[in-house]
Amino acid sequence: MALCGVVLETQLGHVNTLSVGQITVDGLSLTYHGTQRVAIDNAGRSVYGGSNLTCVRGGWDALGRVPISTNVRLAVNQARRYDKCTCAYPGFIASRRNYDVGQGTDANGEWRSGVFEASWRVGGASTAELAAAAAFCRNPALRIVDVSVVKQFGVSCETPHRMRSFITRMTIPKMVRLPDTSA
Which three-class secondary structure string do you get for the chain? Predict the structure, then answer.
């Protein structure tokens, strides 16, 4: 403990988990904020169930110009502060930077907000991030886009109706067969 320290996290109730992050791929940077949802997996456990993201073309400053609520603005500022700490490591490169920010009440009923996880690898929201990047690449004039990723479990899951026509237009490996949605 004397060498590495210790981190204690406060248990939050009625928690809302926000995703704040940035990706940079082939000269394109996009930065986002959004919320996460919970799903029940096949074992009955609560797990990550997807994200709704608002993505802007550009970096942290571009996200700062988007009108957002006070709580989301706080989450973005906390993630930026966390991200800025990477400057202490010269040469550090991460093409994906995602921060999970928890907001909720502690045992005393006090509202709290803080970054509880950093992810600099492919993660749960990566498919939404890539969908946003594809939209920005297809339309250079596009400045902002809303994207979602939905994780569902179980044998009776169906593709959300609004997504069926989008998915059938995507390039999908031959081994995957989607239901006919033309009717």
Answer: CCCCCCCCCCCCEEEEEEEEEEEEECCEEEEEEEEEEEEECCCCCEEEEEEEEEEEECCHHHHHCCCCCHHHHHHHHHHHHHHHHHHHCCCCCCCEEEEEEEEEECCCCCEEEEEEEEECCCCCCHHHHHHHHHHHHHCCCCCEEEEEEECCCCCCCCCCHHHHHHHHHCCCCCCCCCCCCCC
